[in-house]
């Protein structure tokens, strides 16, 4: 009866009349208008939700549509990063998984405020030099644990209108509650939550934002507007943890501080390079280990390896085109060692050796303090 395109007005009317009991004409009219653009499958999902979890069709529809909008607005969700795409960082992956999975498995034992057992639910603050995979880790954990992923970059929430930034923070947490279980990822947390009293903005906007954030984080366990318990997991990322208002690092907030360093050993560098290249068509003669050991400098970050890999692909394409090597069976369309080596000719790592030492000293001091 229905095809796979979205249902027209009459089809939606038929559906509502026949698939749901107890709706009068006025309600049907109203719902027909509100369901514009929905597919048969989506209408069926809504019907099943009403039947299984109660509530009215209208309530379930509102939730469904906010979920749909959320998925569209937060595109990070659709790039499905897996643990295998994150090279190295084994200890960190384990720690993050435990921090997120245990409260999901044993929700009663974890609360954002201290429970009787003294266990508090933790938020994670990933800190370290740029390009070391902090964002990548957060995306991967949301996929691995099948959680929604809501990401905000510090300045995105800021608004010039009085009170609007605080409202944006409130909306963000309500959105997270509605899409629970969910990871709420704050990139560049330092720019959203700087130490209070120092921001230098005349109206004290940043101070109010920090206060609003604290209120929302402490109230994370409250029910959402559909009276459901929510599971929100906080992950923040920053290059400057010292600039973040310290109250945000207290128990139940971003209290698990995790340093994400630049790879120090050959093995770690190899794992990153391998994760980035394993799905690419690479010449079987290319020896990745030799390339990392003999050709690559030791100060490369994951983002540097990503840039090298991308450049090598471009080099391969140029080489193939200029040599008119485009073979119909595309046997020769592979990235060769020379394509990688060529990238390094004029490649500058994101951080020089000196900058790396400065970063390391600074992070060591920060880690010792905490
Ligand atoms: N450990 C890694 N394994 C595989 N790829 C990595 C790794 N680290 C970084 N990358 C690559 O570098 C890109 C940038 O990394 P990402 O954005 O996660 O770094 P970041 O630490 O969040 O940086 P910033 O502090 O500048 O925001 C990733 O999209 C990925 O392609």
TrEMBL record:
<keyword id="KW-0472">Membrane</keyword>
<keyword id="KW-0378">Hydrolase</keyword>
<dbReference type="InterPro" id="IPR027417">
    <property type="entry name" value="P-loop_NTPase"/>
</dbReference>
<protein>
    <recommendedName>
        <fullName>Peroxisomal ATPase PEX6</fullName>
    </recommendedName>
</protein>
<dbReference type="InterPro" id="IPR050168">
    <property type="entry name" value="AAA_ATPase_domain"/>
</dbReference>
<comment type="similarity">
    <text>Belongs to the AAA ATPase family.</text>
</comment>
<dbReference type="GO" id="GO:0005524">
    <property type="term" value="F:ATP binding"/>
</dbReference>
<feature type="domain" description="AAA+ ATPase">
    <location>
        <begin position="120"/>
        <end position="264"/>
    </location>
</feature>
<dbReference type="GO" id="GO:0005829">
    <property type="term" value="C:cytosol"/>
</dbReference>
<dbReference type="GO" id="GO:0005778">
    <property type="term" value="C:peroxisomal membrane"/>
</dbReference>
<keyword id="KW-0962">Peroxisome biogenesis</keyword>
<dbReference type="InterPro" id="IPR003959">
    <property type="entry name" value="ATPase_AAA_core"/>
</dbReference>
<dbReference type="GO" id="GO:0016558">
    <property type="term" value="P:protein import into peroxisome matrix"/>
</dbReference>
<dbReference type="InterPro" id="IPR003593">
    <property type="entry name" value="AAA+_ATPase"/>
</dbReference>
<keyword id="KW-0067">ATP-binding</keyword>
<dbReference type="Pfam" id="PF00004">
    <property type="entry name" value="AAA"/>
</dbReference>
<dbReference type="GO" id="GO:0016887">
    <property type="term" value="F:ATP hydrolysis activity"/>
</dbReference>
<keyword id="KW-0547">Nucleotide-binding</keyword>
<dbReference type="InterPro" id="IPR003960">
    <property type="entry name" value="ATPase_AAA_CS"/>
</dbReference>
